[in-house]
Design goal:
The complex is a heterotetramer of chains A (302), B (213), C (477) and D (660).
Chain B (H helix, E strand, L loop, with lengths): L1 H20 L3 H23 L4 H27 L13 H21 L11 H18 L3 H21 L6 H29 L13
Chain C lengths: L1 H17 L9 H18 L14 H27 L6 H19 L3 H19 L5 H34 L8 H6 L6 H19 L7 H8 L2 H28 L3 H23 L5 H21 L5 H29 L10 H4 L1 H14 L6 H15 L3 H26 L5 H4 L7 H19 L3 H14 L4
Helix pairs in contact in C: 1-2, 1-4, 2-3, 2-4, 3-4, 3-10, 3-13, 3-19, 3-20, 4-5, 5-6, 5-10, 6-8, 6-9, 8-10, 8-11, 9-12, 10-12, 10-13, 11-12, 11-17, 12-13, 12-17, 13-15, 13-16, 13-19, 13-20, 15-17, 15-19, 16-17, 16-19
Chain D lengths: L2 H13 L3 H5 L6 H25 L7 E4 L6 E4 L3 H24 L9 H20 L3 H19 L6 H32 L12 H19 L7 H8 L2 H25 L7 H22 L3 H29 L2 H36 L10 H4 L1 H14 L6 H15 L14 H25 L6 H4 L6 H19 L5 H12 L7 H4 L3 H26 L3 E4 L17 H11 L1 H4 L2 E4 L12 E4 L3 H20 L8 H22 L1
Antiparallel strand pairs in D: 1-2, 4-5
Helix pairs in contact in D: 1-3, 1-5, 3-4, 3-5, 4-5, 4-10, 4-13, 4-19, 5-6, 5-10, 6-7, 6-10, 7-8, 7-9, 8-10, 9-10, 9-12, 10-12, 10-13, 11-12, 11-17, 11-23, 12-13, 12-16, 12-17, 13-15, 13-16, 13-19, 13-20, 15-17, 15-19, 16-17, 16-19, 17-23
The chains are: A mainly alpha (302), B mainly alpha (213), C mainly alpha (477), D mainly alpha (660).
Chain lengths: 302, 213, 477, 660
């Protein structure tokens, strides 16, 4: 029972911290002091107290977008195990629900963007949808590798499998899907190599362009949802690339927190040292991710 | 008896080749009518004795082929200006050679077919087939409508040669029916030839090509 | 009874010749047709009446063809009255006389059991239908009649030669020569083989010309294209069925003589050749009457193919004679109406027939669907049984080619028919006086209902008749 | 009385529903009301019969003799038939109600009666196909359905493109029917009678021949690639309620055919399953890729139907692999998923087509790029379209997800690991299905955005008028259906299991719920709804004391945004079309800009159907030109004709004597 409470608390509170860590790392790299690590929390609180500006051309879809996105991402969060504990909601076949929840989120985010009728939001949603089509197969190859290793199709046992069965034949595929999943993580949460969250050039944005018109509480919900999404996908990635647990709850939870913050740091480092890819080259990156995971899968079933 | 029969059949073959060779329509008509008369006489020679029905069958054949049809043909010819066949498809001499080749083929083909004992030596089957082939050649190489009718008549004569062989098999009614059909066919064709003549003001069938794919 | 069926129409023909008025004379046609059909049904109901003389015997095959042609003639005669009223300006004395004479001679064909007499009758049908084709008196119809007569006469002459070869085959075998069917059948095994083969080839080419099998079909598109609709229906439904009856007789004799394999090889070849040539000419055909002619060539090919497949496909083949005859009636009569309404047969000028002539257009389309073998209609049942026959006879390849050619024919014919039927009629086509009347519409509807009936529930008497015919052909008395 | 006789009465009611209208005058609309009434009676009677049979009421097979040789009028009902009968009794009825205001008789005097008549015959034909147990009866019902669909679809046949689309459909259907003719003839040859009942031992080679014939024959109707060429044209040019029935139910008749044939041929070969799986995977990915490139709304929906048929084929392929390897789980999941997707697709696809009809009726055009901003004027239609779109993209909590979830779980189980030895290659289909899901989201966001959201792009879209109630009611019913199956998939499991048992032939197959927790889907669905409610509540509280101001869209400060500045549908899909150029072969016409002051130039892009435009049409044109050149045979000279007779006589004589 404790684990589920901890799970919910961590799921709800921790994500903005990741964004803070990433911005702090980037500032540190650039030799700046940067905003405090808790800055995202302040932003969220500020935005919740702000007024809302709605465009005349929008319909109820504009408000539904952020709401559904947050709801789906939170539900997805409940499906995955955090640390050594099992997921609060676990059943055979929940990996497909997990993947398609992100599809539902994408459906409503892009529709909300198109609702405003602005060219930039259209451009952002077109790119978002295109790159999703390429990252989806990579994600599924990874899930298939995990399903093959664990022999089950429930996320809990799939994600705990790497930690428990470290046989030789499994290591290589796990590394490969680790790399693939990392690229998918960067693509899905619009980090540097694919999209630059801090850019001001609307023509180059993907995720930011979709939320140009959102303001006030709606914008805070969106920020929070993207943070949670980063957290959820990060957790999945962690189970693949850092597959060991202590077995005792009071040790595993702090270990997990350290790992997730480490991952945020790594992302910060990657964002600092890499520049954005040209829009034409992003598909090649994603196809690369798909090939990594695919090759991992073929290695496994050979 | 058979050598008299054969001599008549040889005459029929000669008439075939002559019909192929001439270019004047009148002479073709005359050749065909002579041929018709000759083949009318055939049963008299081949069987010696003759039952009444056979005799009754022969008389109208000779009358029809010798007198009635040539009359209709010359009548149809009356108002056609040019009496001479235009150059046929492959020229007169090659047609005759073709006719000869046809006769040789007929002889070869006839050997394939076993003959009943009483017709062992007779040339009936080869002559019949040769005449049929001549009829075909006339139909294929000539352009004037009337000459093509003549070709059809030669074809009919060929078949009648064979018919004469089986006079007993064909009861009188059927024999008369066949003759009646022949007569009506020629009659209808003459009407059409007149119509063609009025409509196209010439009998050259090469003008009759408007109906095509 | 035979003399009554044969000479009643000839008597009426003479009566028609005597009737002076152009308006009254056509009405004799339906009277003759109805009476003739009544006589036929009466004869079929009483088997004892079927033997009248040595040569005039109505066997099951003859019954079937007599029934089909008589029914078709009745519907066509009703249509003819409407047609002739519409063509009031032309004298129709020869037309009516020839039509009735045709009915008489056709009955003679079905009754005759003497091959020579049958030949005389078939040649008679040719001569009688020549003036019918020539009804329009245009240059094109003269040319069509000329070709019809010349090619037809040459072909039928070969059939006579074939008949003589058959007689000689009996003579050669030492039996007393007779061309009566029963004698030939009883002595069939003893007939000398080479004469029999030569006879079959000549009869196949001869009666094939009358049926319109390729490559002897060349007269068909010209004759059907230029003849009025009703004459086309009679030719496509009646004359071809009679010629096919002659072919059936020949097949029967050769089958009895044990030459089944030899015969089926030739028939299969001619059948597939005809279907192939017909489909070749149907693609991109711009004249819808010529298209119907090629459809007739194709269906004669199907009949020959069915016959070639031998016993398993016989039921389908005989049923196909019935369904093909009736469906051709529907197609030609409705095509005649459309031709009258638009004054042209070219698919460039003729379009939107469904809107311009609602009844004829719909029936033309329904006829197309029927003739290409779409299920609810009769031809589907017969073509499907022929296909089953092909599979039973172990000829899978033939079945495959058969289906492929049916497809090509469907595409070729469909393009033309849909161009005629769909769309909107041009302005001047809309204001021509011609409209669908009862006389020119009801017979087509009647034929269509018959075709649909056979498609869904073959009437018991017809099925029994066909079964008897199949048994008769296979030699069991 | 046997339930089957009532069922036949219901089918007769459906089939003849269009007849009374033909007897009345073209102007009067009473005929149409009578037709809808009869159809309602027929459908409700039918549904009652199905309910009775499901409730265990006996329905023994019926057979009457009709004089067609070796064939009986045999009809029977078994779980697979019942499953396919449900859409047949629901969608046409809703379409008829929809047609009351969409295709009013008064507005369409020329073809109103015709559409009504053939609409009824189409519905009746489909129902008869599903219960036919005799080859010839099956073929008759099949062709009735095909011809009725043709005449109903080519209602406006005065437009050339309608005629062309109809013509392509007719040829494709006829090829399919000829394959079925060969199939049933071969079936009779092998088993001795037309009676379609499984349990006969058929050698594998003959079974394989029949399988290929069935796959091609029924594939044409189902719309599997590359046999789909007729589908986009026919659906785009047909009236919307007809294309809804065609796409929602008629395509399923092709699927039913394949399911029935594979049920009959129990002894399958190894390659059957992988073949159907591969065809299904390719069809689904290619189908949705083509859909993204389309600019005509109904062509887009037609291509998405092809995609969904591909998904069904994938489920079927999985079931075939399972049956061959003796894996009950795969059969249950594969076939269960496929058959559930048949239901789901007939629900949401007809919903989307009704929606499309309302949109086109309002905006007056089928071009997506000339619509936009319809949500403001047609709010209800937009909401229903959103439900349909979410369902068709197989997103949770709606019904599309339930069926694809079963297929996914089945595919993942083929990975093996643990007890069964898997055939991991089959799992690659899961990746194809994932790709299809993502592309579907892209496609339907494009439609939703371009048609409903944003600013109107043309004044026709600006003055769109809302559809009548009778058009919205059917859509609402279908939307509830989608939500119902989405939230409570467990209700459908018993029928799916009995259908799977019938399909494999042996009874003990176990339950789907035993293999995978279907109840959890309901839990997840309600959890999602709860979360959305919660977040919405939080937002409402946050906004209570805030001011909500409205203004222009923040276009980086641009003061006068117009409809033309928006992303159109084709620009939205352009990046994806570029990614799949090897498949779509898009044609782009851009005039090059030359000189310092170039003249105004234009840009036009088009995504034609590759198979149709690159393969089928050129072949038909080439044959069309080649054949006339062979017409030299009929050049008109009489003497040439006589020559033919001479030649054939000699040929036959020589061949005859040589042969014997």
């Amino acid at each position: 029972m404790i684990d589920t409470v901890l799970h919910v608390v961590v799921l709800l509170l921790l994500p903005p911290l990741l964004l803070g860590v990433i911005t702090k790392i980037k500032a540190w790299f650039a030799g700046r002091v940067g905003a405090p690590v808790l800055q995202p929390y302040y932003d969220l609180a500020k935005l919740m107290r702000r007024g809302l500006v709605l465009s005349t051309t929008t319909t109820w879809m504009f408000r539904a977008g952020p709401i559904v996105t947050l709801a789906t991402v939170l539900l997805a969060g409940l499906l995955i195990p955090i640390g050594a504990a099992d997921a609060p909601v676990a059943f055979a076949g929940d990996l497909i629900l997990f993947a398609y929840l992100f599809g539902l989120a994408r459906f409503f985010t892009t529709s909300a963007a198109l609702d405003t009728g602005s060219a930039f939001e259209g451009m952002g949603s077109a790119r978002e949808v295109t790159f999703a089509c390429l990252s989806e197969p990579a994600l599924f190859f990874a899930l298939m590798v995990l399903a093959k290793i664990s022999g089950s199709i429930s996320l809990t046992s799939m994600l705990h499998a790497p930690a428990s069965t470290l046989s030789a034949g499994v290591a290589a595929p796990l590394v490969l899907i680790g790399i693939g999943l990392f690229i998918v993580l960067l693509a899905e949460t619009c980090r540097i190599p694919v999209d630059d969250p801090t850019t001001h050039l609307e023509l180059t944005m993907i995720h930011e362009a979709m939320v140009l018109d959102h303001s006030g509480p709606l914008f805070s919900v969106i920020l929070y949802a993207s943070a949670v999404k980063l957290f959820v996908l990060g957790t999945v990635l962690l189970h693949v690339i850092v597959p060991f647990e202590f077995g005792r709850a009071w040790l595993d939870w702090p270990l997990y927190v350290v790992e997730i913050l480490g991952l945020a740091a790594v992302i910060g480092v990657v964002e600092s040292i890499m520049a954005r890819l040209q829009m034409r080259h992003v598909p090649y990156l994603l196809v690369g991710a798909m090939l990594f995971c695919g090759f991992g899968f073929i290695l496994l079933i050979r | 008896m058979t050598n008299l029969l054969n001599s008549i059949l040889v005459i029929v073959l000669m008439l075939n080749l002559f019909a192929l060779g001439t270019s004047r329509i009148v002479s073709v008509i005359r050749t065909v009518s002579i041929q018709g008369v000759l083949l009318g006489l055939l049963p008299l020679l081949s069987h010696g004795h003759l039952s009444l029905t056979a005799f009754l069958a022969i008389l109208p054949t000779i009358a029809l082929k010798g007198v009635v049809i040539p009359g209709m043909m010359t009548h149809a010819l009356r108002d056609v200006k040019i009496k001479r066949e235009v150059e046929p498809l492959i020229g007169l001499q090659p047609t005759v050679i073709l006719g000869a080749l046809g006769t040789v083929f007929a002889l070869l083909f006839a050997d394939q077919l076993p003959l009943a004992t009483q017709h062992a030596g007779a040339l009936i089957v080869p002559t019949a087939i040769a005449t049929v082939l001549t009829g075909f050649i006339l139909l294929i190489t000539r352009f004037k409508a009337l000459t093509q009718v003549m070709g059809y008549l030669v074809l009919e004569n060929g078949i009648f040669i064979f018919g004469m062989l089986l006079v007993e098999a064909m009861p009188l009614v059927v024999e008369m029916g066949v003759l009646l059909d022949l007569f009506v066919a020629i009659f209808v064709i003459c009407i059409i030839v007149n119509q063609i003549n009025q409509a196209f003001s010439s009998l050259d069938t090469r003008r009759l090509v408007s109906l095509k794919e | 009874m035979a003399f009554l069926i044969i000479f009643f129409p000839l008597l009426m023909a003479a009566l028609a010749a005597a009737v002076p008025s152009n308006r009254l004379r056509p009405w004799l046609l339906p009277v003759t047709g109805a009476a003739h059909l009544a006589l036929t049904v009466f004869t079929l109901a009483r088997p004892d009446l079927t033997v009248s003389a040595a040569w005039l015997v109505l066997d099951p095959l003859g019954k079937l063809i007599l029934l089909v042609v008589s029914t078709l003639f009745l519907f066509c005669s009703v249509y003819a009255v409407g047609y002739l009223r519409n063509r009031g300006e032309r004298p129709n004395r020869i037309f009516c006389v020839c039509l009735m004479t045709f009915l008489g001679i056709m009955s003679l064909v079905t009754w005759s059991h003497h091959l020579g007499l049958m030949w005389v009758a078939i040649e008679g049908t040719t001569l009688v239908t020549a003036p019918l084709i020539f009804f329009n008196h245009t240059q094109r119809s003269i040319e069509a009649t000329w070709k019809y007569m010349l090619v037809g006469s040459v072909g039928i002459a070969l059939a006579l030669l074939g008949t003589f070869f058959l007689a000689y085959a009996a003579l050669h075998a030492g039996m007393e020569t007779s061309l009566v069917l029963e004698d030939l059948l009883t002595h069939a095994p003893q007939l000398s083989k080479p004469w029999l083969h030569a006879a079959f080839v000549l009869l196949l080419v001869g009666y094939g010309t009358k049926m319109g099998l390729a490559p002897m079909h060349t007269w068909k598109p010209d004759a059907y294209g230029e003849a009025p609709g009703v004459v086309g229906a009679i030719l496509a439904g009646g004359v071809t069925s009679c010629a096919f009856l002659a072919m059936l007789r020949t097949y029967h004799i050769c089958f009895a003589a044990g030459e089944g394999a030899y015969v089926s090889r030739l028939l299969l070849f001619m059948g597939l050749l005809s279907m192939a040539v017909a489909s070749l000419f149907m693609v991109g055909q711009r004249d819808f009457k010529r298209m119907l002619a090629y459809s007739s060539v194709e269906h004669m090919g199907i009949l020959a193919l069915g016959l070639g497949l031998g016993a398993p496909a016989l039921f389908g083949t005989l049923l196909h004679v019935v369904t093909n005859g009736l469906t051709k009636g529907v197609l030609f009569l409705s095509a005649g109406n459309i031709h009258r309404a638009y004054g042209s047969k070219n698919t460039e000028q003729v379009c939107g027939a469904m809107r311009r002539l609602p009844l004829s257009g719909t029936l033309f389309l329904a006829g197309f669907l029927a003739i290409t073998g779409s299920p609810p209609f009769g031809p589907f049942i017969s073509e499907f049984s022929i296909l089953n026959g092909a599979f039973d006879a172990g000829r899978m390849a033939t079945g495959g080619i058969f289906l492929f050619l049916l497809l090509v024919v469907f595409i070729g014919m469909g393009a033309t028919v849909l161009k005629v039927v769909q769309g909107r009629a041009s302005l001047e086509a809309r204001n021509t006086p011609y409209r669908d009347t009862f006389l020119t519409g009801a017979p087509i509807v009647g034929l269509m209902v018959l075709v649909l009936l056979i498609g869904l529930y073959i009437p018991a008497p017809l099925a029994g008749l066909i079964r008897d015919a199949v048994l008769f052909l296979e030699g069991q008395p | 009385m046997n339930v089957l006789t009532f069922l036949l009465a219901a089918i007769a009611l459906l089939g003849l529903s269009g007849l009374p209208a033909c007897l009345l005058s073209p102007r009067s609309s009473t005929g149409q009301h009578i037709a809808t009434g009869m159809m309602a009676a027929g459908s409700l009677l039918g549904l009652a019969c199905l309910a009775a049979v499901l409730a265990g009421h006996a329905a023994p097979a019926l057979s009457w003799s009709w004089r067609i040789p070796q064939s009986l009028f045999a009809v029977g009902v078994d779980p697979v038939s019942i499953l396919f009968l449900f859409p047949v009794f629901i969608v046409p009825l809703l379409g008829s109600v929809y047609g009351l205001s969409y295709w009013k008789q008064a507005e369409h005097p020329a073809n109103g009666q015709r559409v009504g008549l053939f609409y009824g015959v189409l519905a009746g034909g489909m129902a008869l196909v599903v219960i036919a147990r005799d080859g010839v009866l099956f073929l008759i019902a099949w062709e009735l359905m095909a011809i009725a669909a043709y005449f109903a679809a080519t209602a406006e046949d005065d437009k050339p493109e309608v005629r062309r689309a109809g013509w392509i459909y007719l040829i494709a259907t006829h090829i399919g029917t000829l394959c079925l003719l060969a199939l049933f003839a071969y079936w009779r040859y092998v088993t001795g009678s037309f009676f379609l009942e499984s349990g006969r031992v058929i050698p594998v080679e003959e079974a394989s021949v029949m399988f290929v014939l069935a796959l091609v024959g029924f594939g044409f109707k189902a719309g599997l690639m590359p046999l789909h060429v007729w589908l986009p044209g026919a659906h785009a040019n047909a009236p919307s309620h007809v294309s809804a029935v065609m796409s929602g139910v008629m395509l399923k008749m092709g699927v039913y055919g394949i399911v029935r044939t594979t049920a009959l041929l129990t002894s399958g070969a190894a390659w059957w399953g992988p073949a159907v799986l591969a065809v299904g995977a390719f069809t689904s990915v290619a189908g949705i890729a083509f859909a993204i490139g389309q600019r005509d709304l109904k062509r887009l929906l037609a291509y998405s139907s092809i995609e969904n048929v591909g998904i069904i084929a994938m489920g079927l392929g999985l079931a075939l692999i399972g049956r061959f390897q003796g894996c009950a789980a795969w059969v249950l999941l594969g076939l269960g998923g496929a058959l559930l997707h048949v239901w789901n697709h007939s629900l949401f696809k007809s919903l989307l087509f009704f929606n499309a009809g309302a949109i086109i009726h309002a905006a007056g055009t089928r071009e997506i790029d000339r619509m936009g901003g319809l949500a403001k004027r047609l709010p209800v239609v937009m909401a229903l379209f959103a439900v349909g779109a979410v369902a068709i993209c197989a997103l949770p909590p709606l019904n599309g997800f339930a069926s694809e979830w079963l297929i996914y779980v089945g595919l993942f189980r083929t990975l093996g690991g643990g007890a069964e030895t898997g055939t991991p290659a089959a799992a690659l289909a899961a990746v194809a299905l994932a790709m299809t899901g993502a592309l579907a989201v892209a496609c339907f966001v494009k439609v939703l955005g371009a048609v409903f959201l944003g600013a109107p792009r043309s004044e026709a879209a600006e003055h769109a008028h809302a559809p009548a109630a009778t058009m919205v009611a059917p859509m609402a019913v279908l939307a509830c259906g989608c939500a119902g199956i989405g939230f409570f998939p467990l209700l459908t499991m018993p029928l799916l299991e009995s259908a799977a048992r019938m399909w494999t032939g042996h009874a003990e197959l176990g339950a789907i719920a035993g293999l995978v927790p279907v109840r959890q889907l309901t839990v997840a669905g309600f959890a999602l709804a709860a979360f959305v409610g919660a977040v919405a509540l939080i937002l409402k509280m946050a906004l209570r004391q805030q001011t909500v101001r409205t203004g222009l869209t923040w276009d980086c400060g641009y003061a006068r945004p117009t409809g033309r500045m928006e992303y159109t549908g084709s620009s939205f899909g352009d990046s994806l079309v570029n990614l799949t150029t090897f498949l779509l072969r898009p044609k782009k016409f851009r005039t090059s800009l030359r000189g310092l002051f170039p003249r105004p130039s234009g840009f036009k892009s088009l995504v034609p159907d590759t198979v149709l435009d690159r393969l089928v049409t050129p072949v038909f044109k080439a044959v069309g030109q080649a054949l006339p050149r062979l017409r030299v045979l009929q050049q008109g000279q009489t003497h040439v004709y006589v020559l033919y007779i001479l030649i054939i006589m000699i040929v036959l004589l020589v061949w005859g004597s040589m042969g014997s």
